[in-house]
Amino acid sequence: MRFDIITLLPGLLAGPFEHSILKRAADKGLLEVELHNLRDYTTFKHKQVDDYQYGGGAGMVLMIEPVVRCLDFLKAQREYEEIIYMSPDGELLNQSLANQLSLKNNIILLCGHYKGIDQRIREHLITREISIGDYVLSGGELAAAVLVDAIGRLIPGVLNDESSALFDSFQDNLLAPPVYTRPETFNNWRVPEVLLSGDQKRIDAWRNELSLERTRLLRPALLNK
């Protein structure tokens, strides 16, 4: 799977993909992430990519020309199933959406800055807009990193135990149950007896019951789904 990320700050995105699960996925050839500096696609002498907005108002807007040049360059090399703009007013990222996108092969992510991007890009070139939450960040880079991480770990072969992702929180609209590891007793705090029983049916039933209880207590809206 390949992500091409268009950004003003490629250095900000280099770190998240050079460690842990995403790094191992890249080393295995399962995940490819390429960063593209939008300033490389402007014709302005001083690498300008933003301008004042028509109608006045505070804040600059990313211009349409460099974005189109970058997209044309990328699309000339391969077909993309999605061109995604990371936007606070996009559809909210959830596990179901991550599952859907993990089935794609090539995705472009466009990171906004300032007051956003020229609306014509959104109307004519973007196939999907995604938000990671109801708040505003300084730019789309951190949101893009979150999206790649959420999708990348679902690619077959990325996790050492592929069944692990199936039991993550939100996969079935339930929060994950509590987990424990050694030692069995610490400061007189004990691991629940059922987890030591070796009876997998009892363990599965206990985990399901705790998932329901935690979801009902902490995120009851999920149960309506």
What can you tell me about this protein's structure?
The model has no long low-confidence stretch (mean pLDDT 93). A hairpin with a 2-residue loop joins strand 8 and strand 9 (189-190). 31% of the residues lie in helices and 19% in strands. It folds into 2 domains: 2-152, 3-Layer(aba) Sandwich (Alpha/beta knot); 169-224, Trp Operon Repressor, Chain A (Orthogonal Bundle), CATH 1.10.1270. With 225 residues, the chain is of the alpha/beta class. The strands form 3 sheets. Strands 2-1-6-5-7 form a 5-stranded parallel sheet.
Give the amount of beta strand, in percent.
15-25%
CATH top level class name of the largest domain: Alpha Beta
Residue stretches low in confidence (pLDDT < 50, at least 5 long) are none
What is the fold named in CATH at topology level of the largest domain?
Alpha/beta knot
Radius of gyration: 22 Å
How far is the first residue's CA from the last residue's CA? Answer: 29 Å
Q: What is the annotated CATH architecture of the largest domain?
A: 3-Layer(aba) Sandwich
What topology, given as strand order, has the largest sheet? 2-1-6-5-7
Into which percent range does the helicity of residues fall?
Answer: 25-40%
